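User: Predict the structure for this protein chain, please.
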Amino acid sequence: MNNPMGLNTLDFVIIALYLAGITLFGLRFRKRQRSLRDYFLADRNIPWWAIALSIVAAETSTLTIISIPGLAYDTNLTFLQVVVGYLAGRIIISFILLPQYFRGDLFTAYELIERRFGRTLRSLTAGLFLLTRAAAEGVRVYAVSIVVAIALGTGEIASIAIITALTLVYTFEGGLAAVIWTDVVQTFIYVGGTLVGVFTILHLIPGGWTSIHTIAASAHKLQVFDFTPTLWKPYTFWAGLIGGAFLTTASHGTDQLIVQRLLAARDQRQSVTALLSSGIAILFQFALFLIVGVMLFAYYHAPSAAFGLADRIYPTFIVTKMPHGISGLLIAAILAAAMSNLSAALNSLSSSSMMDFYLRRHPNLDNRIQMRLSRISTLIWALVLFGLAVLSLHKVGRVIEVGLQIASLAYGALLGVFLLGVLTKRANQSGAIVGMACGLAIELYIWLGTRVPWTWYVVLGTIVTFSVGYIASLLRGKIAKLSVKAEVS
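Assistant: Here is the predicted structure, written as structure tokens:
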């Protein structure tokens, strides 16, 4: 029997089997969790290819699957220029940051900051990660409700609760090992499901790809490169290459969400291999989702306003136009991306909370107590993200850009501090803190008070943080020398 939105019993069975199956699969890893090294780093015994797929899944949320097609529907393929920057950023991380992470037994990215600068700056950088990651993740979890509400007819709050609860179950029990291996399964599900969707759309449009290409080309939907020398357009070649490189260097080099996976590799070489190969996969993946948006434009040939939000176009197409069974598979694929991203956020937020804050003050706790507190921390963060997602319900606009804007706000300050620590010897903690404060201030000003697009946020924030931090460190050093001379004389 069909529901009003177009799904039938077969679709619901597929969705239910996926949700039950992935949750049970994740629970299989509970017995392996004997220490924090197991729970937060999967005993550093994950092969590079699994980490690569997990990185892809972690940076592919529901935002990507529903909002990137909506972006292409409204504009064209120029977002791919940002993905070229993503590849460049990965190369920078491999040479500059990863060698630092593998010098010592680190659990979080921010331990590197303490080793270089001190405890205060570690707390500040870790705290900034917790705040901005939670805010960005709240928007991403909200994006899930768009899909679930359209597909299942449930209310948005109930939709958020269902996905959060199911993801929490296996993340709570299985730790990072459960997160990574469920990510591997979920990556195959959502990429495979999307490919099935592409071939289905091809068959639904008379004339197939030839017709799609003609319609898309006449509407200038196939443009990939834009070399316009302007600061005000978000998707030019320069904004994509430079902005994308800075964004990825920050998100994959200083954000615990990704660094945690890189630290779970067996050695530095495998970590580098995982990071670089994930970049190739991401390029293919974004191209796939953008092409879906172009194909949907050729199918509907109507303004996105007709759907309310551009983000609703792909989910609406799935549940109203796709054959039964395939529509259920595609909804399951979107939920797969949502759950993999949410599980990654829960585990990284919990690891930073425990390692960067709680266990620094209580270092001698029994191993079982540490494990119990880590699981409680995971539960608390699930409740926080649920609350933030509910608060995001009334946010308008393309959620992919809102999510990237929130994440980008702190990345410039974080990357600037990390580069001060890795690239300079004269920078000190007080100077870095001043630079970090200025970097955050400039990014907030750019976000709230200018028309500068989000692709430049991290670039400008990094430059301000690094330059101000370095100059402040030099001035601090000179003042200290003068005061010592004055005391001696």
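The mean pLDDT is 87.
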